[in-house]
Design goal:
Helices cover 37% and strands 25% of the residues. With 483 residues, it is an alpha+beta fold. Among the domains are: 93 residues, Dna Ligase, domain 1, CATH 3.30.1490; 154 residues, Nucleotidyltransferase, domain 5 (2-Layer Sandwich). Helix 9 links the parallel strand 17 and strand 18. Helix 6 packs across helix 7 and helix 8 packs across helix 13.
Length: 483
């Protein structure tokens, strides 16, 4: 088993397990098993433990029968509606003048996992954003190793989740005779599997429209800058079709995927679906035009809410490569055109790609498999965390808090004078950047005034999306301040 990694995915509509090995052309997924579940998960959180345990146990039995090995250690790929993000900053004075090592950076990241959170929450991931080393400001995470300095300031993007929701997922895995050795969040996994190098470097937003939730991830300079979750997705479309047509959920899902169209083109006004009644019951007619109106309305709401989260992240003008849409709902006809009309951005539909061998099982290339495949890719890239006995942080209770967060390291907190000095330098840097931006705007405005007569400016009105979704979404995507 040392040459293989096994991942488990728990999501709203299914439980999945995959086994992969590393190869010359990327990972090769040699086994991939999916078991559909109903009413066992709700928006990515475990609701009925017994049903999910039975589905995962079935996955394990089938994989072990084909694989010929007993599976004990797994990577957990999990998300959920409770995920939110906040900014977090740590400052300290370093001891000595040693070069910054990977071990020191890892110690800093582990300290970020101990940040204070709201009651019932826990830190699921800490993503480095930048480091300030003495007078060197804004160093990207991949350039800090080997630098030296007396003072260090580390900035992280913390992803928080409900502690009880994460504990329930760990309990499901343990009841099946396995242990979690690493956790990869579903939005991060989907981004790793679908985004290409150009998109991640220049800036992109990914929207994964699943069954119960819609995940939004913003990546810039190969760093995850924002993560958000919308608590409605494909199941909302199915539910509305079922409600308005009085069909069963299974039939409504089939009709949605086969006949649903994200743009009401108007040419299906006289066309109808004739649904044969069960057990000799009466047939039911479903207007295709009415069906498309339902689908367009629901998908528009999902995309508008996702676009709102991207706007609130502050990166709406910093992602020139546009949007990448994946997930089961990406198969809806004309979703690409609808997304382009709503956002005004480039749009690409994507499945799992990149570091995946063509010899992998075909099912892992489906848009619904991006999360689990991305979790495997990320774990192979960070295999040392597993080989070196990566300690799984138990979530049985609220993490212990320590007034002196640097007590376990050979690092001391900044004195008040040092902190004031650093804050003064930071404010000065911000003022200089603002002055430069203002000068650039004034120069551009002067050029425009030479070409055209200036027009009277009118106060800007809130956008349609902000008016519609501001009150509903603002609590789901907290960009937070510095802790």
């Amino acid at each position: 088993m040392n040459d293989f990694l096994v991942a488990v995915e728990l999501c709203t509509s299914k439980v999945a397990m995959a086994v992969a090995e590393a190869g010359y052309n990327g990972i090769r997924v040699i086994h991939h098993k999916v078991v559909p579940v109903s009413k066992g998960m709700s928006r990515g959180d475990v609701q009925n433990t017994q049903r999910i345990v039975e589905a995962l146990a079935r996955c394990k039995r089938d994989i072990e029968a084909d694989f010929g090995e007993t599976i004990t250690d797994v990577i957990l790929c999990a998300g959920g509606q409770s995920l939110r993000t906040v900014d977090y900053t740590m400052r300290a004075k370093r001891s000595g003048n040693n070069l910054i090592s990977p071990e020191e950076l890892q110690q800093w990241r582990q300290q970020a996992f101990r940040a204070d959170t709201m009651a019932g929450e826990t830190v699921l991931d800490a993503i480095p954003q930048s480091y300030n080393i003495d007078d060197s400001i804004g160093n990207p995470p991949d350039s800090v190793e080997g630098m030296s300095g007396k003072y260090i300031e580390a900035r992280y993007r913390l992803i928080l989740g409900k502690a009880i929701a994460e504990r329930n997922k760990h309990d499901v895995v343990e009841k099946c005779g396995m242990r979690v050795v690493r956790t990869v969040l579903s939005p991060i996994g989907s981004a790793i599997a679908t985004l290409n190098d150009n998109e991640m470097e220049n800036g992109v937003a990914m929207i994964d429209i699943g069954a119960g939730t819609t995940d939004v991830v913003v990546v810039k300079d190969r760093i995850v800058r924002a993560v958000g979750v919308i608590p409605f997705a494909g199941n909302t479309i199915t539910s509305d079709i079922r409600f308005h047509t009085c069909l069963t959920t299974d039939v409504a899902e089939i009709i949605k995927m086969k006949y649903g169209n994200c743009i009401d083109e108007g040419f299906t006004e006289n066309k109808k679906l004739v649904i044969q009644g069960v057990g000799g019951g009466e047939t039911k007619d479903v207007s295709l035009d009415f069906l498309q109106q339902i689908v367009e309305a629901r998908v528009s709401e999902i995309l508008e809410a996702a676009f709102y989260l991207i706007e609130k992240s502050g990166y709406i003008n910093k992602i020139p490569t546009g949007l990448v849409i994946t997930g089961g709902t990406a198969y809806m006809e004309h979703i690409k055109e609808l997304a382009r009309a709503i956002t005004g951005m480039r749009v690409r539909l994507a499945n799992a790609q990149g570091n995946i061998s063509e010899a992998s099982q075909r099912s892992c290339f489906d848009t619904t498999s991006c999360s689990i495949v991305g979790a495997l890719i990320d774990s192979f890239n960070n295999e040392s965390e597993i080989e070196e006995g990566h300690e799984v942080k138990r979530i049985d209770a609220k993490p212990a808090r320590d007034n002196d967060m640097f007590r376990e390291q050979n690092i001391t907190k900044m004195t008040l004078r040092e902190k004031l000095r650093r804050d003064k330098e930071e404010k000065q840097r911000i003022r200089q950047e603002q002055a430069a931006e203002k000068a650039a705007r004034n120069a551009k405005q002067a050029e425009e005034e030479e070409k055209d007569e200036p027009e009277e400016e009118t106060p800007s009105e809130p956008s349609k999306i902000e008016r519609r979704w501001g009150d509903l979404i603002k609590d789901l995507f907290d960009t937070g301040g510095s802790n």
